[in-house]
Structure formats: structure tokens, C-alpha cells
Amino acid sequence: MNTKKYLLSTVFALAAIVLLATSASAAKLSLSPTAINVIRGTDMTATIILDPQGSNIYSAKAEVDFPKNLLTVKSFTLGSNWMGLTQSGYDLTDNANGILIRSAGYPGGISSPVVLGTIVFSANASGNGVINFGNSSLIYDANSQNVLTGAAQMSLSVSAPAPKPVVAVKPPVKPAVVPQPVVTPQPVVTPQPEASQPVVETQPVEQATIPQQPASLLSAFGSLLTLGTEQFWIGAIVLILLLVILGYAIVFVTKGQKKQA
Questions:
Q1: pLDDT in tens, 123-157
Q2: What is the pLDDT of residues 31-59, one digit of tens each?
Q3: What is the CB-side half-sphere exposure of residue 198 using CA atoms within 13 A?
Q4: What is the pTM of this model?
Q5: 51 φ/ψ angles, rounded to the nearest 5 degrees
Q6: What is the span of the domain harbouring residue 230?
Q7: Final residue before a domain boundary, out of 140, 159, 178
Q8: Within a domain: residue 65?
Q9: Which residues have CB under 8 Å from 36's CB, separation 6+?
């Protein structure tokens, strides 16, 4: 009996130690917000929170499973001070199958809740679904032991955008016709020109021309002497001839009178 009691006491003590150790080394992953409603065609953000719950955590691997028919991963951003791991199996974005895997280490370890990373999804279709953590998710403590004990999921609702309101096209409003005042045309009075006074033309008084008989006789005599040529030398010759004839006539008359006496 004593041996059986001893064995039972030992088993219970070991079980208590294991339970205490498990409770002391426990960590959780969660998504924030825990529920979200989005409009189709818009983006949404999901933040991965790591809560060590008292453990000293040095690295983590998060596998996020999302409804591939509703969402598409646009980007992922690691939280501050995390160092990402890019080895195969630790870094994956698979929109065709709805899987995102990111792994990172935290230098010096953490013991309080921190942001592991932020995911930006694009809502492509309407519907409901959940985003949760896959079975390959891990959280390692200082002893490289996986201390992940729980992971919370996010509920998702994607709704169609509200229909655009139909804007009724109003017919163009014709401007009101404002009656214009009727303006009676006033007769235009054209000023008449003043009656002009008759212009009396002053006729110049012709002065009586006193004929100058001597000048006219002399001119006629000169024209006769020049035979109408108005040449002086012709006139001189004619005058000399006349004087010669006159002289002969006088001499002839004088001789005749002497004979009669």
C-alpha cells in the first residue's frame, strides 16, 4: 500500500509540475479587429498580435488562412524590431489557395504583447467568412520550445456597395420672358435751314472807252505802209516811194501852172 501511495503521489507531483510549466510557458496569437465589415472593392487591414503571456519569446511563425474567394493579400508589413526570415516554408503569399506565412525573430526576446505584422487585404467579392491561424503557426521561447497554446480568429463580412442614386435629369428651365416696355418713337424734328438772303451780284460798271482816234489812224497808216506785214523796213521803203511820187507830182503840177500863166 505504501508503495502504491508513493507512486501515485509521484505521478500527481510530476503532472502538477508539467501543468505549472505549461501554464508558465504559454503564448497566443490573435487578429485585430476580431470582426470586420467591409465594402466590396475596398481594402481592409488585419493586425497580428503576439501575446507571450509571461514567456520570453524569441521567434514566431504565423500561418494566416483567409477565404480566397473573398480576399486577396495586397501587402504585409512586419512590426517594429522584428527580423524577417525568407527561407522556403517560412515566407509565402499564396492568394490562389488563401494562405499567408510570415516568420521572424526578435533580438533579445519579448515578454509583453507586440505587433507581429500588419496585413492589407483587398475585398474582391461579397460574402461571409473567417480568417484564422493555420496548424504550422509556431512561437518559440528561449529553449526553442513551441509555446503557442491558442490562436483567435477574425470574422469577416463583405457586402456589396450601395447602389448609386439615380439622378433625375431635369429638363432645362427656360428663362422667363420679361416683357419689354413698348417705346413709342418720337418724331424727329429736323431743323430747317434759315432762308437764305438773295445774293445780289454787283455787276461791274463798264467804263466808257474813249476811242483814241489818232492812235487808230496812225496804226492804220502804219499797217498800210508795211502792206499788212507789220515789218518796219517795208514801211520805210513804201514811205520813200510815196515821197518820191509825191515829189514828182508836185513838180509836175508846178510846171503845168507855169505854162498856163
A1: 999 999 999 999 999 999 999 999 999 999 999 99
A2: 999 999 999 999 999 999 999 998 999 99
A3: 3
A4: 0.56
A5: -115, 105
A6: 216-260
A7: 159
A8: yes
A9: 44, 46, 154, 155, 156, 157
